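Recall that a protein's primary structure is simply its ordered list of amino acids. Everything else, from secondary elements to tertiary packing, is in principle encoded there. The following example makes that idea concrete.
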Amino acid sequence: LERLGKGLKAATVLGFIYSLIALAVLYFFGEPLNLLFVSASETEVIANSQQFLLANALFYFPLALVNIVRFLIQGMGFSGFAMIAGLCEMVARTLVGLVFVPILGFTAACFASPTAWIFADAFLIPAFFYTRNRLKKQMS
């Protein structure tokens, strides 16, 4: 159980650092990366893909937390909670698609995955502490 806390801290720090680096790379080099896939004359496609990349990159840290905490919970033997987190993500994406895309269009679609990651974190973080405490009780 002691290693859970250490692992969570170490992975969270690494996830945060990775998120900052990925955001910086996509901010400064997103457009040139887009040019690997589309012609420079496709200015609207490039602008839209850059918007999508940045909208997602801004939320890579919540994504890192989803992966870190989900796998910690699975490793403790509570895989059902990981499946519920997936359900939270699906509900969030559906909500964005049905409610916000008709109002805000493409911009809302860009934030569908970040919204899903935040919904999953809102479930997973309390679930982690619950499962850790439950495991502590089982072991003592």
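The chain has a mean pLDDT of 95. Residues 4 and 10 are 10 Å apart (CA to CA).
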